[in-house]
Amino acid sequence: MDIEYFKLAHYLNEDYKHILLKANVHFRASLNSISMISISNERPELGVKCNANTYKVADNIRSSIKQDFERIIKKQSTPKRPTPEKELQSWIINYALNNNYQLPFDTNIKYITSEFAITNKEGLKIVTDIIGYSERDNQLCIIELKSDRLLKRLIQQVLNFEKVISDNFDFFSKLLSINGFLENKPLSKKMKKIVVWPHEKTSPKNKLKEENILEFTYKDHYTFMNFG
Hints:
With 228 residues, the chain is α+β, with helices and mostly antiparallel strands. The protein folds into two domains: 4-75, no CATH class; 84-226, Trna Endonuclease, Chain: A, domain 1, CATH 3.40.1350. Helix content is 37%, strand content 28%. The protein has eight helices and ten strands. It has helices spanning 4-15, 17-22, 52-57, 61-75, 84-97, 151-167, 169-178, 206-210, and strands at residues 25-29, 34-38, 47-49, 102-103, 106-119, 125-134, 139-145, 192-198, 213-219, 223-226. It has a seven-stranded mixed sheet, with helices on both faces. The longest helix has 17 residues, at 151-167.
């Protein structure tokens, strides 16, 4: 699998951090493209695919960033229906990018990337909401965000992505290295599995504990509770 788009996204997010955050956007890589994504309250997770070659050779990258940001605005003004999961995801990423990549529900976990999509060995597309890295435990973190509490589906999503990481472990180790981790140590093969969803009186969920999935719940916009 190609890591180049992730290298480019990290470079752009670091070197142009000030103007990106001022505009409430960031660059998100996939295995075959790079996109500019909104992290504003008004346009959560709205994005446009970028011409990667433009960013590799452009004499004035600031101008290219401005043009792609304007494309986001023109593409769609505001969502036509409620998007609670996108709003949560956008808020978390915005917080992380403004706070040295720390995630708001656990400051020991650093944000790496989001909406990571990959095909598993059975040919099925597997996606996770956020990939993080626990500096304290030297572990990758699989993080699923939900606005509902459909437990069975959630557990299956997390376990599916855990298997994908195990099957592509070298790639994910390189992904962390791009982000400045693992300089002198190999990545632990044990992973953290995390769900973030609305708070209810039924938390913590025993089934999540059985599957070794950490549970964070939130109230309002956004106060987190840890049931790990």
